Amino acid sequence: MIDGEEKVGVINTEEAIQRAREKELDLVEVAPLSDPPVCKIMDFGNYLYDLRKKEKKARKTVKKTETKTVRLSIRTEKHDLEVKAKQAKKFLEGRNIVKVVLIFRGREISHQDLAMEKMQAFYQILEDICKVEQEPKRQGFQMTMILNPNK
User: Fold this and answer.
1) What does the pLDDT look like over 7-44, one tens digit per residue?
2) Judgement on whether residues 35 and 108 belong to the same structural domain of the protein
């Protein structure tokens, strides 16, 4: 049993309860599965309050992951592709998921191979900091690929 910060040792339950009442605190079982069970004399309400406060602070510090979108075209040139990759790199470093969308206009839809090459070129620029979660696939008049940051 732990009495405040003082370690007492093995005592019977009645004596532990009596010591807790003398100090006007609670006898709390900290490790019920150990043999013998470990108890601590403390203010249980204050303990719960501190626990909730720590959980609330932990929730505030956790950043929610967002999905950021980068739009491309078959006609996007090499330099523009690098500029968009630089922006995607910022998103990935911010621990966000990047959705790369290549939009087909007019007859471009018949050139799936060019679109696939453009997507692969974009990924090759970023492959050191991310991995592909979803391979490029066509959905109507656009092709999408999802990139996740490396852990």
Assistant:
1) 777 888 888 889 889 988 988 888 888 888 888 888 98
2) no
